[in-house]
Amino acid sequence: MATETMHLDVTHPVAIKRPARESQFGLMWRRFKRHKLAVVSLWIAALFYAVALFAEFLAPVDPSAYSARYTYAPPQGLHFVAVNEDGGWEFGPYVYGYKTEIDPVALRRTFVIDEEVRLPVRFFAESKPYNLFGFIPLTTKFIGVENPRDPFYILGADRLGRDMLSRLIHGTRISLSIGLAGVTLSLFFGIVIGGFAGYYGGWFDSATMRVVEFIRSMPTIPLWLGLAAAMPKDWSALQTYFAITLILSLIGWTELARVVRGRFLSLRTEDFVTAAQLDGASDWRIITRHMVPSFMSHIIAAATLAIPGMILAETALSFLGLGLQAPIVSWGTLLQDAQNIRTLASAPWLLAPGVCVVVIILAMNFFGDGLRDAADPHGR
Amino acid sequence: MSTLLTVDHLSKHFLLSGGLFGKERRLDALTDINLTVEAGETLAIVGESGCGKTTLGRCIIQAQSSSEGRVVYHPKSGGDVELTALSKREIKPWRQDIRMIFQDPMSSLNPYMRVFDIVAEPLRIHRICKGRELEERVISTLEKVGIPAEAVGRYPHAFSGGQRQRIGIARALVLDPKLVIADEAVSALDVSIQAQVLNLLEDLKTEFGLTYIFISHDLGVVNYIADRVVVMYLGHVVENAPTEMLFERPRHPYTELLLDTLPIADPLRRKVRKTEVRGEIPYLGNRPTGCPFNTRCKYAEDRCRTEKPVLRPIAGMAQEAACHFAEQLNLKGAYDDAPVKEIA
């Protein structure tokens, strides 16, 4: 029988020198870069968020500054090359002025671009003092007309003669930040509740999952409408903002809680988690140090994919007049002006926020898809 | 030799929910386990899949709660520590003394932690040392198990299965434990690596003065490393004997059956199967009455089907078996030669 004891003298294997492993996020980034559409989307999204961040600096004028003289003024566009009377070329940014004409059909006074008048435009133009981020005093805007009294409506004006571009830029800040804040809040609820459910299991798990199913089975729009309608009308802009964020994340957390719970459930039985328990680690340490890092990338991807939903929801609510209210500028409140066909026919530039919504939603979706694929080690 | 650990009437059952309308069913994974572990010995627990050997290991180390009975640890400093009665907080200091090596070197190391952090984690949790001292201790432990110091910054996936198992061993040993439970510690490795790791475990045992509980299904490995063997079947201990005695003359028909499955590395003596293996291992939730092995035992008589045998010393020897006919039966050991087949 081959059961005699033999002490096999096998020398320890010599470790081969190999480059140290790239970090998890390094690997993820490398896979992500292969997804071209996602990379482009990342840049677009980054651009949008930069605009949101530096809104005061980028917006040519105050978004609430109105001018009765230029209601529904059409977009001037921004021009860089001009041809002189003597045929020579002149460089430098400028916009055309306006002249008024009477519309022969509607017998209304309308603005028409006057190509005779050129209003020179400056980058880093002087402006009235304002505060960047609310605390950095500045007197320079990214762009502006040389004579502050000249009309400057690159994207046109709304019914009160307010600059569409400035309003759009400030709206970007509100709409995008509400998406981020909502997802952050959802993420918090999702990780805490889903984490508890997945880690401890038992009745808490069953109860939570039934609640999640219940919430998800409700049609979202009427639920949002109900909650938003229950908000007191006399709340300040800031209060409304946070209330809307809360309402949006009240539903948003369910999806993330499920993802987190699933990951916890599958990780809980892994040997390395048992090993940590046998090391004597506290639950908190096990969760934060041993479990969360291994699915952080999935969480980031899931959160990114949740942002567009938030933005859409805010836009929809505000568009219906139940979300953010008039003095606050968001894409939704801006689109409220584009609600009737007559305005749309005569001032289509009011739809610009809609274009922004479509672009950012697509960008965030592609970006999130790319992230998810990159985070999945079993992917292509 | 002094006793290091006592397992006293330990039972573990799981309750299986029968769905919304079904009846809850009870599954007995361990029934009335009694054993002692002497300081300095290597105790092997063997049995086929599902016999409860892993559950026993997990109950001893309190990775799982037991249903009944006690697990008592006897530290060198004196006193008895009843592990089964301690809360999570109270048991933490004793986790330094009793450590575990896992079966699967792939899943037992956190893929997102560097080897250094994996081995340093227990030291950090128990706040034993930090800074320079921690670094030295981790690296010296890793070097003892054969992982070079320059590799400590890598992640587990950069290592082979054998190396990973060494890292798992280093994690168990870094706290300077007294008792190490190795749950199928080598069965996921290929045979040549198994030998390396077994030799390493032997060497470390001498160096650190360890006691092992070695859970395995591989009798060849058990014969190589164990001083004493506990054979389990269907959640019962059916035999408990020093390795030599067990392999030479088993006292329980199930042990005979297990020994008979050992392959012979000699083509001339390649045997025709001597013992007939009858039937399947019964479902735990529906165990037979009387002796748990009676459904598969070729020696079974009526008494075996009604009366459950208890684990008892056989003829005053160090060998214990749970069989009514332990003395009468002349069971075949591992060294009983099969008739040599002549080459034509």
Which value, in Å, is the CA radius of gyration of chain A? 28 Å
**Structural class from helices and strands of chain A?**
alpha+beta
Could you tell me the mean pLDDT of chain B? 85
Chain pair sharing the greatest interface? A-B, 33 and 56 residues
Assembly type: heterodimer
Q: What is the overall number of helices of chain A?
A: 12
Q: Please report the number of helical segments of chain B.
A: 10
Distance between the termini of chain A: 49 Å
Element pattern of chain B in H and E: EEEHEEHEHHHEHEHEEHHHEE
Broad shape of chain A: elongated
State the gist of this model:
Chain A is built from twelve helices and four strands, in the order H-H-H-E-E-E-E-H-H-H-H-H-H-H-H-H. Chain A is of the alpha+beta class. Chain B has a domain at 252-321.
Comma- or semicolon-separated keywords:
heterodimer, A: 380 residues, alpha+beta, MetI-like fold, 2 domains, four-stranded antiparallel beta sheet, 12 helices, 4 strands, 55% helix, disordered N terminus, B: 344 residues, alpha/beta, eight-stranded mixed beta sheet, 10 helices, 12 strands, 27% helix
Can you offer a commentary on this structure?
The complex is a heterodimer of chains A (380) and B (344). Chain A is an alpha+beta fold. Chain A folds into 2 domains: 37-53 and 167-375, MetI-like (MetI-like fold); 71-159, no CATH class. Chain A has helices at residues 24-33, 36-53, 55-58, 164-200, 202-217, 220-229, 237-268, 271-278, 283-319, 331-336, 341-346, 352-375, and strands at residues 79-83, 89-102, 109-132, 136-145. A 4-stranded antiparallel sheet of chain A has the order 1-2-3-4. In chain A, helix 1 packs across helix 12 (352-375), helix 2 packs across helix 12 and helix 4 packs parallel to helix 7. The two termini of chain A are 49 Å apart. By secondary structure, chain B is of the alpha/beta class. Chain B has a domain at 252-321. Chain B is built from 10 helices and 12 strands. In chain B, strand 9 (228-233) and strand 10 (236-242) form a beta hairpin. The chains are: A alpha+beta (380), B alpha/beta (344). The interface between A and B is large, with 33 and 56 residues.
